[in-house]
């Protein structure tokens, strides 16, 4: 009995040591990181830009939940201090941007429900080019999983997919997802339809418009939807003519004019708001770009 009791006690002691070994290692790492941060503090350190964070895997493995949140909030403060000291927020040096991207990734993994991280990553990274817009969306998707009821996150993702990554169909997916959320404004679904048309999915855009028409009672919105539905139906007629042309000839026409009059009586007019853009074999329906008037000269 005594031998068994001694073995059990030793086992429990060893287990306790192992349980505290990882948190202790994480605490030592954090202390070293804070010491380095303090040692290089002051204006010179701020000018050098943000430092790369400790490895996320070690912080995750060696920390309790509240410590992970604390680490994330400390990193958030550091990123805010350095970003506020950037000489030109629109032209941040690549080394600084890489450090910000690493900081945001670690923050999101340590404390995925910290909403401020997703506002900050959208404001700092997305405007710095396609590479950093992709980095931002990767962080935002962590937030999408952790905060499924936050409508701003799919909004940011959709905006980035369209504005910076030039992927209208992915943007449409994000806005369509956001449109299903209870507090979503009606124009989210309408925007998703327009993005589908812009990306070449005219059928999908038409279905979204028709679905929205069935659910709204607003007279002004219904009028806009009905007008757009007519345009999308005309564009779909052209799309179907292209498919018939391809089925019979084995190729796509070099221009839409080849469709008339055999495959389509005439190419329909899309009105003043939209235009058909044909880049064989893809047909897309896009809003017309506004014409900017030249400034009037003073006499």
Describe this protein with a few key phrases:
single chain, 299 residues, mainly alpha, two-stranded antiparallel sheet, elongated
Detailed description of the structure:
- The protein has 299 residues and is mainly alpha-helical.
- It has 12 helices and 2 strands.
- It has a two-stranded antiparallel sheet with strand order 1-2.
- It is elongated, with a radius of gyration of 28 Å.
- The model has no long low-confidence stretch (mean pLDDT 84).
What is shown here, in short?
The protein contains 12 helices and 2 strands. It has helices spanning 2-39, 43-48, 56-61, 65-84, 94-110, 115-124, 130-146, 152-163, 168-179, 187-198, 202-215, 219-249; strands at residues 274-279, 282-287.
Q: Which descriptor suits the 3D outline? A: elongated
- Computed structural class: mainly alpha
Give the neighbour order of strands across the main sheet.
1-2
Question: Main sheet?
Answer: 2 strands, antiparallel
Record field, number of beta strands = 2
The average pLDDT score comes to: 84
Poorly predicted runs of 5 or more residues:
none
Q: Tell me the Rg in angstroms.
A: 28 Å
Percent helix: 55-70%
What series of H and E elements makes up the topology? HHHHHHHHHHHHEE
Strand content: under 5%
Note the gap between the termini. 108 Å
Structure annotation, total helices:
12
């Amino acid at each position: 009995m005594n031998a068994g009791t001694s073995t059990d006690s030793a086992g429990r002691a060893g287990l306790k040591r192992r349980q505290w070994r990882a948190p202790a290692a994480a605490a030592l790492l954090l202390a070293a990181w804070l010491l380095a941060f303090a040692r290089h503090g002051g204006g010179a350190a701020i000018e050098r830009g943000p430092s790369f964070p400790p490895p996320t895997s070690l912080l995750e493995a060696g920390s309790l939940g509240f410590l992970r949140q604390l680490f994330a909030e400390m990193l958030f403060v550091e990123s805010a201090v350095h970003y506020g000291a950037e000489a030109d927020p629109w032209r941040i040096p690549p080394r600084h941007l890489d450090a910000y991207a690493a900081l945001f990734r670690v923050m999101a993994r340590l404390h995925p429900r910290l909403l401020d991280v997703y506002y900050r990553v959208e404001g700092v990274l997305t405007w710095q080019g396609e590479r950093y817009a992709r980095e931002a969306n990767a962080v935002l998707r962590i937030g999408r999983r952790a905060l499924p009821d936050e409508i701003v996150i799919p909004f940011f993702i959709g905006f980035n997919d369209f504005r910076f990554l030039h992927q209208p169909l992915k943007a449409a997916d994000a806005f369509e997802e956001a449109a299903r959320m209870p507090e979503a404004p009606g124009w989210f679904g309408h925007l998703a339809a327009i993005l589908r048309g812009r990306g070449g999915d005219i059928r999908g855009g038409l279905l979204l418009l028709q679905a929205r028409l069935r659910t709204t009672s607003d007279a002004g919105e219904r009028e806009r939807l009905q007008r757009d539905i007519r345009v999308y139906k005309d564009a779909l007629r052209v799309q179907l003519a292209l498919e018939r042309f391809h089925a019979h000839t084995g190729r796509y026409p070099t221009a839409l004019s080849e469709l008339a009059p055999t495959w389509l009586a005439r190419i329909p007019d899309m009105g003043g708001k939209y235009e058909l853009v044909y880049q064989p074999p893809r047909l897309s329906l896009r809003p017309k770009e506004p014409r900017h008037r030249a400034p009037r000269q003073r006499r």
